[in-house]
Specification:
This protein is an alpha+beta fold. The protein has one domain: 3-Layer(aba) Sandwich (NADH Oxidase). 35% of the residues lie in helices and 22% in strands. It has 5 helices and 9 strands; from the N terminus they run αβααββββββαβαβ. The strands form 2 sheets. The chain has a 7-stranded antiparallel beta sheet, sandwiched between helices. The radius of gyration is 20 Å and the shape is globular. The chain binds flavin mononucleotide. The site of flavin mononucleotide has 10 residues, from strand 8.
């Protein structure tokens, strides 16, 4: 009887260890709370306060704020048609938003309102060489899925992808102004090839810009 108990105990310890090991290996998809689509500062006040900031606190954003931020950036605001808070050329909706955080990187799925797990571990440093980037809680990477840009010439591809990211980025700037958050859109990304590999991007998905978001650094 004693040996059986011991065996059972060892087996359960092994199971717990295995589960912990699997947990440490995997990053899971994360459900986002429904975005809060009311309130905020009046538009004219948000426009007055819109600005670039390069000094961030390391404090994390609550999941609700992240959900609101992503919805403001490129969420679905007309569920009947699936259209979004930012315009996109020919309604291609080709821009993907990767959310790079300390614990891992996720892809924003606006329709399911979830963050899809992309890569475990901290890739923030890979999103840009400027000093404030790595310690900031969130770095967004805007990626154009050129396979959705049917009929566009090579010149048009960069023009339209750049413009479409610009609208999303400005939505995020205005959301940040409204919420008292700090942000900067960034062309300075560093090694785009290495980042594309870390994000597991196929050749048709191109990194366009990045955007850092967080609470403003406390005034000293
Ligand atoms: C396409 C684009 C790329 C930018 N790239 C960077 C960047 O890599 N790093 C940075 O610190 N600021 C970057 N900025 C922010 C600009 O420097 C900033 O918007 C400008 O100085 C004006 O400041 P304001 O946004 O407060 O009006 C970029 C802005 C744009 C529109």
């Amino acid at each position: 009887m004693k040996t059986l108990n011991l065996k059972l105990m060892l087996a359960s310890i092994a199971l717990v260890m295995l589960a912990n090991f699997a947990g440490a290996q995997e990053l899971r998809d994360m459900a986002l709370p429904a975005p809060k689509t009311e309130g905020g500062k009046p538009l004219m006040q948000a426009l007055k306060e819109r600005q670039t900031s390069r000094a961030y606190d390391t404090k994390k954003l609550p999941l609700q704020v992240l959900s609101d931020l992503l919805w403001a950036g490129f969420g679905i605001n007309r569920p009947d048609s699936g259209k979004r808070t930012a315009p996109s050329t020919r309604n291609w909706q080709e821009i993907d938003i990767y959310v790079v955080m300390e614990e891992g990187t996720y892809l924003y799925d606006a329709k399911a309102n979830i963050l899809k797990a992309v890569a475990k571990g901290d890739l923030r440093k890979m999103t840009g060489p400027q000093e404030f980037v790595a310690p900031a809680p969130i770095n967004l990477v805007f990626v154009a899925d050129t396979s959705k840009m049917k009929g566009a010439s090579q010149d048009d591809l960069s023009l339209y992808a750049g413009a479409d990211v610009g609208f999303i980025s400005q939505n995020i700037y205005l959301f940040c102004a409204s919420e008292g958050l700090a942000t900067v859109v960034r062309g300075m990304i560093g090694d785009k090839k290495a980042l594309a590999e870390a994000l597991k991007l196929p050749a048709e998905k191109k990194i366009i810009l990045a955007q850092t978001v967080g609470y403003p650094a406390p005034v000293k």
